[in-house]
């Protein structure tokens, strides 16, 4: 069964472009993971400081592999001083249909 989630984060004042650039780099790395099926980054239409990332992995094992990547660790470390709360808020999803 696929593993889907979304993550949100709000850039601190003056860091929107830096967070955006980090997410663009992360997207390239994550999309290259064999178990990644979807990795899409948005900003909110009414607040471009808020980023919304939609992710789907082939299954739980693919998600676990994703969580162990160096590029993910580097990204999470880099955003600690750039986003509110020092990281993203993650919400896991279960399919309905």
Automatic annotation (TrEMBL):
Pfam families: ABM
SUPFAM superfamilies, A to Z: Dimeric alpha+beta barrel
Domain (ABM): residue spans on this chain: 3-91
Coiled coil (UniProt feature): none
PANTHER family linked: ABM DOMAIN-CONTAINING PROTEIN (PTHR33336:SF3), QUINOL MONOOXYGENASE YGIN-RELATED (PTHR33336)
Name of protein: ABM domain-containing protein
Native species: Gluconobacter thailandicus NBRC 3257
